[in-house]
Amino acid sequence: MTLDRKPWQRHFARRSKSSSTPPPAEPATNTAQTEAVAVDTIVDPPVAAAEVKPEKKKSVDEIKQSLNEKPMDVRREILNILTGGNIKGTARNKKIAEIVLEALLKIGKLFYHAERRDFDSAMFFNGNSKCLLRIRADAFSSWLSEWLGINRADILYKFVFTEIETAALSSKHSIPIIPEDYWASRPGAIYLSNGDGHAAKITSTGVVVVDNGTDGVLFPAGRTLAPWKITEPRDPFETCRLFREAYCSGTYSKDILRVWLYSLPSNPRSKPPLCLSGTVGSGKTRTIKGFAELFGMPFIAHKAEENNESDFWPACDAGGLFTLDNADTRCRWLADALANAATDGCSQRRKLYTNSETVILRARAWLAVTTANATFAADSGLADRLIVVRMERRDGEDTGDAELGAEILAVRDAGLSHLAWTLSAALADKTTVPGGLNRRHPDFAQLAVRIGRALGRERETIAALRSAEHDKAAFCLENDFIGAALITFLDREGCFTGTAAELSPKLIEVDADLSGHLSPKKLSKRLIALWPHLQTALGIAKRDPDRKGFMVFNFKKATPAEFADFETPFPIKSLCNSLAGVLEKQPLKVGNVGDDVKTPGKCQTCARAEKFCILTPGQRDFCSGPFTEESDSE
């Protein structure tokens, strides 16, 4: 005889088919009913209540051990503790926080900023997604809440979150690092980020895609280039109209733009700022924006104003490419800040809401400046650090900004692949590089020449660097009131010899605005400050004290032949002074052998009207010109 079952009896009857553990029996009202239920619903013999042993509560160490042996189920362990009933309040929350931390360390690692070591810079690296997140970032908080199944408003979540922050600054669980932004460089390798979880590793042997964190190089989420694919390489200066048709006034200015762009991932400590100078409508800002679009990173154009100095160093510390757009207005802090950042400078500032704590902001970003009136270039120290590219106005063009951007986006993968393989070839190049191409940034100049070799434009690149080094002086003098007046005076008179008191009225005749502002003492000080650029730009620039102790200046205008060295297809000074034994032994000529340019007693390669070739007899395999005994003695 079978009696009707109650709801709880039907529930446990279903469970008994898949479970060996008997359900608890309800106290029966009579013996017959109890026997009927037991026969009908329980497969295994019932176990006496006295024989059922209570489940032993796991300790924290046992739970951690189970997480190591089996796939982690953090939510299950949290639920067991919450429903256990043996631990309550703060002790329960503390136990859950320890278990969550242990589980978190199984799937990732904790880091802190090596130079700051504060909660705000603490980070977590997820080993599954390969993403590096700041612990206080919204993205990490959202992920942690979803992973644990705990609402962020719950007091338990705050316990867990605080435990993670504390562990991130402890030496036991955390590792100090300085996270990279967009790209990174290590000896023999360059890393170009590829989305938040990957990077392209560039070495002398090739280019491969690796996980974020390879070789200890970590890119934080949100500070990476947009994802891209390695594909058939194509030169962006040939496929992108914005770069291909850039209106640069110099013969080799486009080569400077190319090697500067390709050098960005090398990330040297000292980075030469790029200064694009030109009239309105010359495409200065759009060119820099195109660089950012090619890499796939945000275009940041900052307005250089007198009250915006506090924004400069945070932007530099953020890495990537930082642009000072339309820097035309005189700004007292700009020249010093740019000069400091160009040579691996930094800024130490008081941390907000503290009295004595400080934070160091470093020049991690490459700097680009666009200007039509470069008043900042009058600073001789800054001008010596710049790479100047002069641009001309685009007339008769109506190409839309969106169209140019779409063209860059369409060939972005091929362009970055070309850049990566070019850098790989440059890293494999161990050939000696001529010196003196950029005195302030020799590391940049060496890599630029190797990039030029990989592109098949070594001679043009060397000529471009030589020309840019010389143009620094002209750029500084033409943007300085006294320097510009002196150049104008020498263009008219040709030369000058005398003291500052004798030169001052002559300059006032050239520029009437100097009247009342140019004393001999002020003129002398300014000439001394500009002296390195005067020596470069002028044919003769000398100063010697006379018998009375007054400084006598001797200036002479540079002849066209002296400037020709910077516009020839291959600079002769570089050949004569630096390249012996480096380049292949083949004739380097301005014209063909037998042309009318051949002059008895002169080097055909040099083709200079005033000087003989200065190559030694053992180096003349580089030169195709005839020699006389007179030139040998030179």
Question: Could you characterize what this model shows?
Answer:
With 634 residues, the protein is an alpha/beta fold. It folds into five domains: 7-51, no CATH class; 60-177, no CATH class; 236-454, 3-Layer(aba) Sandwich (Rossmann fold); 480-561; 584-634, no CATH class. It has 25 helices and 18 strands. Strands 10-11-14-9-15 form a five-stranded parallel beta sheet, with helices on both faces.
Concise structural overview:
With 634 residues, the protein is of the alpha/beta class. 41% of the residues lie in helices and 14% in strands. The protein folds into 5 domains: 7-51, no CATH class; 60-177, no CATH class; 236-454, Rossmann fold (3-Layer(aba) Sandwich), CATH 3.40.50; 480-561; 584-634, no CATH class.
Tell me the CATH topology of the largest domain: Rossmann fold
User: Unreliable segments (pLDDT under 50, ≥5 consecutive)?
Assistant: 1-57, 63-71, 561-634
Known CATH architecture of the largest domain? 3-Layer(aba) Sandwich
Residue-averaged pLDDT = 80
Q: How far apart lie the N and C ends?
A: 129 Å
Shape: elongated
Rg from Cα = 36 Å
The fraction of residues in strands falls at: 5-15%
Largest sheet: 5 strands, parallel
Total tally of structural domains: 5
CATH H-level superfamily of the largest domain:
P-loop containing nucleotide triphosphate hydrolases
Helix count from the secondary structure assignment: 25
- Which CATH C-level class of the largest domain is it? Alpha Beta
Q: Helicity range of the residues? A: 40-55%
Number of beta-strand segments: 18
